[in-house]
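Q: I'm writing up a methods section and want to include an example of the input and output format. Could you take the sequence below and give the corresponding predicted structure tokens, formatted cleanly so I can copy it straight into the document?
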Amino acid sequence: RRQRQMCIRDRCIEISQTEDSQKCLKQFNKIHDNNIVIFTSLQAVIFAFKIYPDWCISHHSIVIAVGSKTAQYLEQYISNTILIPEQQNSLGVISIIKGLENPTPISLISAENGSQEIQNHAKDNHLELTQINVYQRHLPTTNKSTNWINKKLEISVLATSVSILENLKLLLNEKEWLVLKKQLFVCASNSCL
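A: Here is the clean output for your methods example:
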């Protein structure tokens, strides 16, 4: 007997441009010709070029994009070769950096409060790193009802990051969170583990 399934899409994260675009512009202008420039996500590309539409990354720079979609989107702005890590996450980026003969200063184009793996690797290996936070993730404002949690449903939760899970917990009351915790969680990122 098949159970009826339904998809409930509740936003657990909202993404917006950083509040300090001027700081970003100053950081962009300090990027040297031979820097390693890392875009951590599609949003990093979108907001970087929204803040600095005329940004021209030097052909001498090594450009790394986390994810093929990020690289595809980035191609409309630059003509550099774009390296995409085989493992499309921070660990994949670290693997590329380790493979470079003489790693140059790193410019990390990312979000505030993201994963710290690349930053920690740079610190541990005495590599110069500037993090340019072009966007931020925050809890969405919502008036949506979460009554669906209290119904007798089998629920599967698909989370793409730890931030999503943390925000989901903040959006629910304690009783709803207890119900949800007993359900199936599927995580689409190593950072959830």
